[in-house]
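Quick one - first record:
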Amino acid sequence: MLAFAASTFAQSATATATATILTPLSIANAGDMNFGNIVAGAGGDVTLDPVALTRSTTGPGLFGAFTFALFDVTGNPNSSYTISLPATHTITRLTGTETMVVDAFSSDPATPGTLSGTGTQTITVGATLGVGAAQVPGVYENAAGFTVTINYN
């Protein structure tokens, strides 16, 4: 009799299992960073601000055009993603061994970013270039480039 009474109180419920497969995130370079033409003088910093879309200086003379690094991101529409920027990046004079450091990287949007309803967004990246006093004239670059990484949140 006890066995029969215990089974009358048993209850059950069901649940469903779901999964969402996301479109893989991708990122592609859409433009390289160029601080423009600089006269070093006593040295200082040159900053590219990706939010204000401006270039500023704490000393060196600035001339000519400049460009921000641009990255096109695609993925699942309306998804949020994180942006990881480098801490520092060293550029070297093409015909020498002199260097300058690029740091204080920033982006627009800042992390996290959100893809549009069509699953796209362009990230604008700026940074600060440290120019030494009487920096040796020439073109400075790092052909290997710097890396921007994205991940779904």
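second record:
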Amino acid sequence: MIMIEANGARIPAIGLGTWELRGETCARIVDHAIKCGYRHVDTAQMYANEAEVAEGLRASGVARDDVFLTSKIWPDHHRASAFARAAAERAEIFGGPLDLLLLHWPNAAVPLAETVGALVKARRDGLTRHIGVSNFTTRLVNAAVALADEPLVANQIEYHPLLDQ
């Protein structure tokens, strides 16, 4: 398995994206993917499928610590108080800390310092092992890194063959 190492995180390079998966189909696909060897599953608050992803993880019979789990917080929860609740909800859904928690998109209406501070606090509070961003420009990644007291391990961006069409 190819691993990416960044700021102390070892992340499986290929993961199962669950964006449009819902209900029992989502749980079944996650279960099957893990049984077939996937060890990285990506979901998000906005996908509205985290409970099904958790169900698929449990059904696989593979120990939770053997699967790298990434989730993302939607921008309408980037204020510090809302972020804290959203991060705690993610950890509750999955029965413990995530492996990677990301800011799903930037939110220009919330100061980046507030959001990054809330992200760092989620890590310090044990809700996630690693933190990062998603869909940030280079300028915003640099600003987030400068604001973070903990290492950011990823800027997850959408990339797949259909983007070239």
